[in-house]
């Protein structure tokens, strides 16, 4: 069941609980409540980061089916209005690998959406306006999503 729980605690965090069938509502919630096009996804392995990003890519109008960029590091999608870059930084050994492939250029593209899984490795170069989303696994079916 989709239940918005808007909290006014610290930094005005917004939180929702959801299940897989709620993804369209969760995507709308994210797009309506994030302040930046650079969105960082934090959550444990298997929490649904890639599944959520696939739904975002689809909602934003990409005609290509989104997939995990685990081995390619980045996937690019084009919509009529924007480019979308989806990063999975799990395999990077350090922040310098991100610099080597030019991640800063992607972060500087103010017209593009940039979705980053496992963003902690590049924390020193993330723009201040980046929006962090935390996914918390409640049980096999339920997740809490916090927009920080």
Number of domains: 1
User: How would you describe the oligomerization state of the chains in this entry?
Assistant: single chain
Q: How do the strands line up in the largest sheet?
A: 1-2-8-7-3-6-5-4
Which structural class fits the helix and strand makeup?
A: alpha/beta
Query: How do the helices and strands follow one another from N- to C-terminus?
Result: EEHEHEEHHEEE
What characteristic shape results from the CA principal axes?
globular
Spell out the CATH superfamily.
P-loop containing nucleotide triphosphate hydrolases
Helix fraction, binned, reads 10-25%
Number of helices: 4
What does this 3D model show about the protein?
The protein has one domain (3-147): Rossmann fold (3-Layer(aba) Sandwich), CATH 3.40.50.300. Helix content is 22%, strand content 28%. The chain contains 4 helices and 8 strands; from the N terminus they run ββαβαββααβββ. It has an 8-stranded mixed β-sheet, with helices on one face. A hairpin with a 7-residue loop joins strand 1 (3-6) and strand 2. Helix 1 crosses helix 2 (49-59). The longest helix has 11 residues, at 23-33. The two termini are 22 Å apart. The model is unreliable at 1-10 (pLDDT under 50).
Keywords, separated by commas or semicolons:
Rossmann fold; about 150 residues; alpha/beta
In short:
With 148 residues, this protein is α/β, with parallel strands linked by helices. The chain has four helices and eight strands, in the order E-E-H-E-H-E-E-H-H-E-E-E. The chain has helices at 23-33, 49-59, 95-100, 103-107, and strands spanning 3-6, 14-18, 38-42, 74-78, 83-88, 113-117, 131-137, 143-147.
